[in-house]
Amino acid sequence: MGAKMKLDPRSPLVLGVGLLLVSTLASTLADGSVKQMADRLEAPQVFFLSGLIMAGITLFTARIGAKSGRVATGCLTTQRPGLLVIRSVAMVIASLGFFYAVKLIPLAEMFLFVGLMPLMSAVLSRLILRETVGAGDWLGLGVGLIGLTMLFPEGISGFSTGHLAGLVGAGMGTLSLVVARLMARYEQNALVQVFYPNLALSIAAIALLPSVWSPMGLGDLFQIMLYSSLLFVARWTMVLVMQRLRAPVALPLLNIQFAWMVGVGFVFFGEVPQISTVIGALLVMGAGIIALTEQARVERRVRLSAAQVIPAE
């Protein structure tokens, strides 16, 4: 007899989806705030300050968490330093790519590269994580690929420097998230995956800082503080997401970010996406729903198997 599917609010699937909604909204708001700064300040200056601020927020959060008993260890030690280095380097390159993409192209077009990440993750998950990609996952990825062709109606002729930057950002961002998923198998402390990559981002910016530094007012400092706080929330919650969801499931669900991007782009920058972009985005978001359904099916199968092994009292 088939049992009705019930999702426990505390299950990894439900918690992962909830955290992902928070992460994508915070990330989009951060992109909107940095887009305003990108015309006045260069990337090294923004990343030097924001990386230090985020590293400081991470230390503060770890200290508060340790006192409250919610965090067992600090954010300075790791069980997998090699993986942490790979994640940090990948995140630095991804940050640079996405910064210049946000600067040069509309926010709605940035969704093209967010939509590419699930396709990239399907390959990397098999190579790095040895995670299987089921039929439902491939179906979702296929729907997403169709949607992506509509998101870029001008074809290769419309490809610009901003799009190239976004492509690099998507590739390195996917690698960073897949490595985060791999580290989660050995490293329970999510904050260590936030502290060192952000510190690496700040250190990497130092070499170019003297040639690009521009005077800043209180408004600029406030914007960088806002950007850093939002990005800290986005990155911390995304690490928590990758602890709970498989990469082929988590990354298609990032496509909800299109709704946030269109909203922020319209409200703050007056950007109106083309109808083909909206239709393509709906298809790509549909791919995320298919992936979510596949994950729910897998969880249900695991619960049924466990119920058969442990008889009810």
Plain-language structure description:
The protein has 313 residues and is mainly alpha-helical. The protein has one domain (12-305). It is built from twelve helices and no strands. Helix 5 (135-151) runs antiparallel to helix 12.
List the helices and strands and how they pair.
Elements lengths: L11 H27 L4 H26 L12 H24 L2 H23 L5 H17 L9 H23 L8 H15 L2 H4 L5 H27 L2 H7 L3 H13 L5 H35 L4
Helix pairs in contact: 1-3, 1-9, 1-11, 2-7, 2-9, 3-6, 3-7, 4-5, 4-6, 4-10, 4-11, 5-12, 6-9, 10-12
| Largest pleated sheet | none
What is the terminal separation in angstroms?
19 Å
Low-confidence residue ranges = 1-5, 309-313
Summarize the amount of helix as a percent range. over 70%
Reading the helices and strands in chain order gives HHHHHHHHHHHH
Instruction: Please report the number of helical segments.
Output: 12
| Tally of separate domains | 1
* Gyration radius, in Å: 20 Å
Describe this protein with a few key phrases.
77% helix; mainly alpha; single chain; disordered C terminus; 313 residues; 0% strand; disordered N terminus
Summarize the structure.
With 313 residues, the chain is mostly helical. The chain is built from 12 helices and no strands. The protein has helices at residues 12-38, 43-68, 81-104, 107-129, 135-151, 161-183, 192-206, 209-212, 218-244, 247-253, 257-269, 275-309.
